[in-house]
Known about the structure:
Rossmann fold, 3-stranded parallel beta sheet, 14 strands, globular, binds nicotinamide-adenine-dinucleotide
Amino acid sequence: MPSTILIIGACGQIGSELTASLRAKHGNNHIIASDIREPNDQTLLKGPFEVLDATNIDAIEDVVVHYEVGEIYLMAAMLSATGEKFPMKAWNLNMNSLFNVLNLAKEGKIQKVFWPSSIAVFGPSTPQHSTPQTTVMEPTTVYGISKQTGERWCEYYHQKYGVDVRSIRYPGLISYKTLPGGGTTDYAIDIFHEALKNGHYECFLSEETELPMMYMDDAINATIQIMETAEANINVRSSYNLAAISFTPEEIAREIKEHLPEFSVSYAPDFRQAIADSWPSSIDDTAAQEDWGWSSTYDLKKMVQVMIEGLRSD
Ligand SMILES: NC(=O)c1ccc[n+]([C@@H]2O[C@H](COP(=O)([O-])OP(=O)(O)OC[C@H]3O[C@@H](n4cnc5c(N)ncnc54)[C@H](O)[C@@H]3O)[C@@H](O)[C@H]2O)c1
Protein backbone atom coordinates (compact mmCIF):
# COMPACT_ATOMS: atom_id res chain seq x y z
CA MET A 1 0.00 0.00 0.00
CA PRO A 2 1.50 3.36 -1.03
CA SER A 3 1.29 6.41 1.23
CA THR A 4 -1.67 8.76 0.73
CA ILE A 5 -2.32 9.65 -2.92
CA LEU A 6 -3.49 13.06 -4.16
CA ILE A 7 -5.34 13.33 -7.47
CA ILE A 8 -5.40 16.84 -8.95
CA GLY A 9 -8.13 17.31 -11.59
CA ALA A 10 -10.24 14.52 -10.06
CA CYS A 11 -13.55 15.82 -11.47
CA GLY A 12 -12.42 15.27 -15.07
CA GLN A 13 -13.01 12.42 -17.49
CA ILE A 14 -9.99 10.41 -16.35
CA GLY A 15 -9.60 11.76 -12.82
CA SER A 16 -13.09 10.70 -11.71
CA GLU A 17 -12.61 7.08 -12.83
CA LEU A 18 -9.04 6.99 -11.53
CA THR A 19 -10.23 8.20 -8.13
CA ALA A 20 -12.89 5.47 -7.99
CA SER A 21 -10.42 2.74 -9.00
CA LEU A 22 -7.71 3.81 -6.57
CA ARG A 23 -10.26 4.12 -3.75
CA ALA A 24 -11.59 0.63 -4.50
CA LYS A 25 -8.01 -0.64 -4.30
CA HIS A 26 -6.59 1.27 -1.32
CA GLY A 27 -9.64 2.51 0.63
CA ASN A 28 -11.54 5.81 0.38
CA ASN A 29 -9.48 7.70 2.93
CA HIS A 30 -6.13 6.98 1.28
CA ILE A 31 -7.09 8.79 -1.92
CA ILE A 32 -7.50 12.58 -1.74
CA ALA A 33 -9.54 13.86 -4.69
CA SER A 34 -9.13 17.52 -5.66
CA ASP A 35 -10.16 19.87 -8.43
CA ILE A 36 -10.60 23.59 -9.02
CA ARG A 37 -14.37 23.01 -8.97
CA GLU A 38 -16.76 21.15 -6.69
CA PRO A 39 -17.74 17.69 -7.98
CA ASN A 40 -21.08 17.11 -9.73
CA ASP A 41 -20.65 13.42 -9.07
CA GLN A 42 -21.35 12.52 -5.43
CA THR A 43 -19.17 9.41 -5.64
CA LEU A 44 -16.11 11.68 -5.48
CA LEU A 45 -17.26 12.67 -1.99
CA LYS A 46 -16.98 9.08 -0.68
CA GLY A 47 -13.49 10.04 0.48
CA PRO A 48 -11.65 13.31 1.16
CA PHE A 49 -12.20 16.05 -1.44
CA GLU A 50 -10.40 19.41 -1.59
CA VAL A 51 -11.01 22.39 -3.86
CA LEU A 52 -7.49 23.05 -5.11
CA ASP A 53 -5.92 25.13 -7.87
CA ALA A 54 -3.10 23.22 -9.60
CA THR A 55 -1.35 26.49 -10.43
CA ASN A 56 -1.06 27.41 -6.72
CA ILE A 57 1.97 25.59 -5.27
CA ASP A 58 1.32 26.77 -1.70
CA ALA A 59 -2.21 25.38 -1.80
CA ILE A 60 -0.94 22.03 -3.14
CA GLU A 61 1.74 21.90 -0.47
CA ASP A 62 -0.82 22.58 2.29
CA VAL A 63 -2.86 19.57 1.12
CA VAL A 64 0.31 17.44 0.83
CA VAL A 65 1.31 18.26 4.40
CA HIS A 66 -2.19 17.96 5.84
CA TYR A 67 -2.86 14.48 4.38
CA GLU A 68 0.77 13.24 4.39
CA VAL A 69 0.62 12.75 0.63
CA GLY A 70 3.37 10.63 -0.95
CA GLU A 71 2.18 10.43 -4.57
CA ILE A 72 0.46 12.90 -6.88
CA TYR A 73 -1.46 12.09 -10.06
CA LEU A 74 -1.67 15.40 -11.94
CA MET A 75 -4.74 15.17 -14.22
CA ALA A 76 -5.59 18.90 -14.46
CA ALA A 77 -4.93 20.33 -17.94
CA MET A 78 -6.55 22.18 -20.78
CA LEU A 79 -7.10 19.79 -23.70
CA SER A 80 -6.41 20.10 -27.42
CA ALA A 81 -9.58 21.67 -28.83
CA THR A 82 -10.14 24.09 -25.93
CA GLY A 83 -6.42 24.90 -25.88
CA GLU A 84 -6.60 26.19 -29.46
CA LYS A 85 -9.24 28.71 -28.30
CA PHE A 86 -7.23 29.85 -25.25
CA PRO A 87 -3.55 29.24 -26.11
CA MET A 88 -1.94 31.19 -23.27
CA LYS A 89 -4.36 29.85 -20.67
CA ALA A 90 -3.61 26.31 -21.87
CA TRP A 91 0.13 26.92 -21.72
CA ASN A 92 0.01 28.48 -18.26
CA LEU A 93 -2.18 25.77 -16.75
CA ASN A 94 -0.43 22.83 -18.40
CA MET A 95 3.11 24.00 -17.63
CA ASN A 96 2.73 25.70 -14.23
CA SER A 97 0.79 22.80 -12.72
CA LEU A 98 3.52 20.40 -13.87
CA PHE A 99 6.34 22.54 -12.47
CA ASN A 100 4.52 22.81 -9.14
CA VAL A 101 4.28 19.06 -8.75
CA LEU A 102 7.79 18.35 -10.09
CA ASN A 103 9.24 20.92 -7.68
CA LEU A 104 7.46 19.37 -4.70
CA ALA A 105 9.05 16.04 -5.72
CA LYS A 106 12.46 17.65 -6.24
CA GLU A 107 12.27 19.06 -2.70
CA GLY A 108 11.48 15.57 -1.37
CA LYS A 109 7.98 16.61 -0.22
CA ILE A 110 6.40 13.83 -2.31
CA GLN A 111 7.97 10.61 -3.56
CA LYS A 112 6.27 9.82 -6.88
CA VAL A 113 4.45 11.67 -9.67
CA PHE A 114 2.14 10.56 -12.47
CA TRP A 115 1.70 13.06 -15.28
CA PRO A 116 -0.15 12.21 -18.50
CA SER A 117 1.16 13.11 -21.91
CA SER A 118 -0.75 12.53 -25.15
CA ILE A 119 -0.52 11.44 -28.78
CA ALA A 120 -0.75 15.22 -29.38
CA VAL A 121 3.04 15.38 -28.87
CA PHE A 122 3.30 14.11 -32.44
CA GLY A 123 2.84 16.26 -35.53
CA PRO A 124 2.48 16.14 -39.29
CA SER A 125 6.15 15.18 -39.82
CA THR A 126 5.85 12.15 -37.48
CA PRO A 127 5.47 8.70 -39.13
CA GLN A 128 1.70 8.27 -39.07
CA HIS A 129 1.37 4.49 -38.89
CA SER A 130 2.66 2.49 -35.95
CA THR A 131 4.36 5.63 -34.63
CA PRO A 132 7.56 4.61 -32.80
CA GLN A 133 8.38 5.48 -29.19
CA THR A 134 11.26 7.70 -30.33
CA THR A 135 10.63 9.66 -33.51
CA VAL A 136 10.23 13.11 -35.07
CA MET A 137 7.96 15.28 -32.89
CA GLU A 138 6.84 18.65 -34.26
CA PRO A 139 3.41 19.24 -32.68
CA THR A 140 1.28 22.01 -34.16
CA THR A 141 -1.20 22.61 -31.32
CA VAL A 142 -0.50 24.56 -28.15
CA TYR A 143 -1.68 21.48 -26.24
CA GLY A 144 0.80 19.26 -28.09
CA ILE A 145 3.61 21.76 -27.56
CA SER A 146 2.82 21.87 -23.82
CA LYS A 147 2.81 18.06 -23.61
CA GLN A 148 6.07 17.71 -25.54
CA THR A 149 7.72 20.38 -23.37
CA GLY A 150 6.33 18.66 -20.28
CA GLU A 151 7.91 15.38 -21.38
CA ARG A 152 11.32 17.03 -21.72
CA TRP A 153 10.98 18.55 -18.23
CA CYS A 154 9.91 15.23 -16.69
CA GLU A 155 12.99 13.55 -18.12
CA TYR A 156 15.16 16.48 -16.97
CA TYR A 157 13.83 16.36 -13.39
CA HIS A 158 14.45 12.63 -13.32
CA GLN A 159 18.01 12.87 -14.66
CA LYS A 160 19.10 15.96 -12.71
CA TYR A 161 17.19 15.60 -9.46
CA GLY A 162 16.23 11.91 -9.32
CA VAL A 163 12.49 12.69 -9.39
CA ASP A 164 10.43 9.52 -9.82
CA VAL A 165 8.01 10.79 -12.44
CA ARG A 166 6.12 8.37 -14.70
CA SER A 167 4.09 9.15 -17.78
CA ILE A 168 1.95 7.71 -20.55
CA ARG A 169 1.01 9.23 -23.92
CA TYR A 170 -2.70 8.48 -23.75
CA PRO A 171 -4.58 8.04 -27.01
CA GLY A 172 -8.20 9.29 -27.21
CA LEU A 173 -10.03 7.85 -24.21
CA ILE A 174 -13.58 6.53 -24.37
CA SER A 175 -15.91 6.14 -21.40
CA TYR A 176 -19.60 6.43 -20.57
CA LYS A 177 -19.35 7.48 -16.94
CA THR A 178 -18.00 11.01 -17.49
CA LEU A 179 -18.27 13.44 -20.39
CA PRO A 180 -15.09 14.31 -22.31
CA GLY A 181 -13.24 17.55 -21.58
CA GLY A 182 -12.70 19.38 -24.90
CA GLY A 183 -10.37 17.12 -26.92
CA THR A 184 -10.21 16.23 -30.62
CA THR A 185 -11.19 12.60 -30.00
CA ASP A 186 -14.40 13.59 -28.13
CA TYR A 187 -16.45 12.57 -31.19
CA ALA A 188 -15.92 8.90 -30.26
CA ILE A 189 -17.93 9.51 -27.06
CA ASP A 190 -20.45 12.04 -28.39
CA ILE A 191 -21.41 9.57 -31.13
CA PHE A 192 -22.80 7.10 -28.54
CA HIS A 193 -24.82 9.74 -26.68
CA GLU A 194 -26.36 11.03 -29.91
CA ALA A 195 -26.95 7.53 -31.32
CA LEU A 196 -29.00 6.59 -28.28
CA LYS A 197 -30.76 9.94 -27.89
CA ASN A 198 -31.47 11.01 -31.48
CA GLY A 199 -30.48 8.13 -33.76
CA HIS A 200 -28.24 10.52 -35.68
CA TYR A 201 -24.81 12.09 -35.20
CA GLU A 202 -23.10 14.88 -37.10
CA CYS A 203 -19.40 14.15 -36.81
CA PHE A 204 -16.85 16.98 -36.64
CA LEU A 205 -14.17 14.76 -38.24
CA SER A 206 -14.31 13.23 -41.71
CA GLU A 207 -15.37 9.61 -42.11
CA GLU A 208 -11.88 8.28 -42.93
CA THR A 209 -9.96 9.99 -40.09
CA GLU A 210 -8.20 7.16 -38.27
CA LEU A 211 -6.99 7.91 -34.73
CA PRO A 212 -5.58 5.83 -31.84
CA MET A 213 -8.18 5.28 -29.10
CA MET A 214 -8.60 3.31 -25.89
CA TYR A 215 -11.42 2.29 -23.57
CA MET A 216 -11.12 4.00 -20.19
CA ASP A 217 -10.70 0.79 -18.14
CA ASP A 218 -7.55 -0.03 -20.12
CA ALA A 219 -6.20 3.49 -19.55
CA ILE A 220 -6.88 3.34 -15.79
CA ASN A 221 -5.24 -0.09 -15.56
CA ALA A 222 -2.19 1.17 -17.46
CA THR A 223 -1.94 4.20 -15.17
CA ILE A 224 -2.06 2.13 -12.00
CA GLN A 225 0.27 -0.48 -13.51
CA ILE A 226 3.00 1.99 -14.46
CA MET A 227 2.81 3.60 -11.01
CA GLU A 228 3.06 0.24 -9.24
CA THR A 229 5.90 -1.26 -11.27
CA ALA A 230 9.39 -1.34 -9.75
CA GLU A 231 11.37 1.82 -10.41
CA ALA A 232 14.06 -0.19 -12.23
CA ASN A 233 11.52 -1.19 -14.93
CA ILE A 234 10.94 2.40 -16.02
CA ASN A 235 13.40 3.06 -18.82
CA VAL A 236 11.47 5.91 -20.42
CA ARG A 237 11.26 9.05 -18.27
CA SER A 238 9.69 11.29 -20.90
CA SER A 239 6.48 9.36 -21.63
CA TYR A 240 5.49 5.90 -22.90
CA ASN A 241 3.55 5.29 -26.11
CA LEU A 242 0.35 3.39 -25.30
CA ALA A 243 -1.97 1.75 -27.83
CA ALA A 244 -5.19 -0.25 -27.96
CA ILE A 245 -7.57 0.34 -30.90
CA SER A 246 -7.38 2.51 -34.01
CA PHE A 247 -10.55 3.26 -35.99
CA THR A 248 -12.24 5.85 -38.20
CA PRO A 249 -15.62 7.53 -37.57
CA GLU A 250 -17.04 5.32 -40.33
CA GLU A 251 -15.80 2.15 -38.63
CA ILE A 252 -17.17 3.02 -35.19
CA ALA A 253 -20.49 4.08 -36.77
CA ARG A 254 -20.71 0.70 -38.54
CA GLU A 255 -20.13 -1.10 -35.23
CA ILE A 256 -22.79 1.03 -33.48
CA LYS A 257 -25.25 0.16 -36.28
CA GLU A 258 -24.83 -3.51 -35.33
CA HIS A 259 -26.67 -2.56 -32.10
CA LEU A 260 -28.82 0.30 -33.44
CA PRO A 261 -29.64 -0.48 -37.10
CA GLU A 262 -31.48 2.84 -37.66
CA PHE A 263 -28.46 4.94 -36.60
CA SER A 264 -27.10 7.38 -39.21
CA VAL A 265 -24.09 9.72 -39.35
CA SER A 266 -23.31 12.84 -41.37
CA TYR A 267 -19.94 14.52 -41.57
CA ALA A 268 -19.19 18.23 -41.10
CA PRO A 269 -15.46 18.57 -40.32
CA ASP A 270 -14.54 21.71 -38.36
CA PHE A 271 -11.25 23.13 -36.98
CA ARG A 272 -10.61 19.86 -35.15
CA GLN A 273 -10.03 18.08 -38.49
CA ALA A 274 -6.68 19.85 -38.91
CA ILE A 275 -5.66 18.77 -35.39
CA ALA A 276 -6.65 15.15 -36.07
CA ASP A 277 -4.80 15.19 -39.42
CA SER A 278 -1.58 16.15 -37.61
CA TRP A 279 -1.77 13.12 -35.27
CA PRO A 280 -0.79 9.47 -35.80
CA SER A 281 -3.35 6.89 -36.89
CA SER A 282 -1.74 4.06 -34.90
CA ILE A 283 0.92 3.75 -32.21
CA ASP A 284 3.72 1.28 -31.48
CA ASP A 285 3.74 0.62 -27.72
CA THR A 286 6.39 -2.13 -27.61
CA ALA A 287 8.40 -0.24 -24.94
CA ALA A 288 5.45 -0.19 -22.52
CA GLN A 289 4.78 -3.88 -23.19
CA GLU A 290 8.39 -4.85 -22.57
CA ASP A 291 9.19 -2.56 -19.63
CA TRP A 292 6.12 -2.94 -17.43
CA GLY A 293 4.00 -5.63 -19.08
CA TRP A 294 1.30 -3.47 -20.64
CA SER A 295 -1.39 -5.02 -22.86
CA SER A 296 -4.86 -3.77 -23.78
CA THR A 297 -8.03 -5.81 -23.29
CA TYR A 298 -10.74 -3.89 -25.23
CA ASP A 299 -11.10 -4.12 -29.01
CA LEU A 300 -13.62 -2.05 -31.00
CA LYS A 301 -16.42 -4.62 -30.74
CA LYS A 302 -16.14 -5.04 -26.96
CA MET A 303 -15.78 -1.30 -26.38
CA VAL A 304 -18.90 -0.46 -28.43
CA GLN A 305 -20.94 -3.10 -26.62
CA VAL A 306 -19.85 -1.87 -23.18
CA MET A 307 -20.51 1.77 -24.11
CA ILE A 308 -24.04 1.07 -25.34
CA GLU A 309 -24.91 -1.15 -22.37
CA GLY A 310 -23.42 1.39 -19.95
CA LEU A 311 -25.27 4.38 -21.39
CA ARG A 312 -28.56 2.46 -21.61
CA SER A 313 -28.41 1.56 -17.93
CA ASP A 314 -27.51 5.12 -16.85
N1 LIG B 1 -9.24 12.29 -22.17
C1 LIG B 1 -8.38 11.98 -23.13
O1 LIG B 1 -8.76 11.41 -24.15
C2 LIG B 1 -6.92 12.30 -22.95
C3 LIG B 1 -6.01 11.90 -23.95
C4 LIG B 1 -4.67 12.20 -23.80
C5 LIG B 1 -4.22 12.84 -22.66
N2 LIG B 1 -5.11 13.24 -21.70
C6 LIG B 1 -4.58 13.94 -20.52
O2 LIG B 1 -5.08 13.37 -19.33
C7 LIG B 1 -5.28 14.40 -18.34
C8 LIG B 1 -6.72 14.39 -17.85
O3 LIG B 1 -7.57 14.55 -18.98
P1 LIG B 1 -9.16 14.55 -18.87
O4 LIG B 1 -9.68 14.06 -20.16
O5 LIG B 1 -9.60 13.89 -17.61
O6 LIG B 1 -9.43 16.11 -18.79
P2 LIG B 1 -10.75 16.87 -18.29
O7 LIG B 1 -10.79 18.18 -18.97
O8 LIG B 1 -11.94 15.97 -18.37
O9 LIG B 1 -10.42 17.08 -16.74
C9 LIG B 1 -9.49 18.02 -16.28
C10 LIG B 1 -9.90 18.43 -14.88
O10 LIG B 1 -8.96 19.41 -14.42
C11 LIG B 1 -9.67 20.40 -13.70
N3 LIG B 1 -8.89 21.63 -13.68
C12 LIG B 1 -8.79 22.59 -14.63
N4 LIG B 1 -8.02 23.59 -14.20
C13 LIG B 1 -7.60 23.26 -12.96
C14 LIG B 1 -6.78 23.89 -12.00
N5 LIG B 1 -6.20 25.08 -12.22
N6 LIG B 1 -6.57 23.26 -10.83
C15 LIG B 1 -7.14 22.06 -10.55
N7 LIG B 1 -7.94 21.42 -11.43
C16 LIG B 1 -8.17 22.02 -12.62
C17 LIG B 1 -10.99 20.54 -14.44
O11 LIG B 1 -11.97 21.13 -13.61
C18 LIG B 1 -11.29 19.10 -14.81
O12 LIG B 1 -12.08 18.46 -13.85
C19 LIG B 1 -4.87 15.71 -19.02
O13 LIG B 1 -3.51 15.98 -18.73
C20 LIG B 1 -5.01 15.40 -20.49
O14 LIG B 1 -4.16 16.19 -21.25
C21 LIG B 1 -6.45 12.98 -21.83
